[in-house]
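Work Package 3 (structural annotation) set out to generate three-dimensional models for the target panel prioritized at the project kickoff. During this period the team completed the workflow that converts sequence records into discrete structure tokens, so that structures can be stored uniformly alongside our sequence database. As a representative example, we reproduce one entry of 120 residues exactly as it appears in the project archive.
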Amino acid sequence: MSWQEVERLYEVETWILGPDGYPLFLTNPSFGGDVLDVEWSPHKTPPFTAFTTGRPPYLKEEQREYRTWGRLRTDQVTDIVEVVHDLDLTEWSTPRPPRTTLPPPSPPGPAKVLRLGRRR
């Protein structure tokens, strides 16, 4: 783990409009693939001005934490919007841990020599 000083901390949400104008939240981007993992939630406000309300019927009935999950092909996407949310640095920052000292040296005495040998 590395400690860094940052001036700004933000989160980027990617919203897409799926078939029939349903707003979906992208949970796993497709890196060269043709399938996207998406989420629909009645508790999130989509950034689109015109969209279809209600649960998308083409998503699977997977309920997890009151969210509906599913997969969507990239050719079914009609619009994409990225929303940037600035996060409060004080909520995410932690003080740097104190530097630890090296462990004490091994006790004095003859050095142990490890020799490679054949297995019998």
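The radius of gyration is 26 Å.
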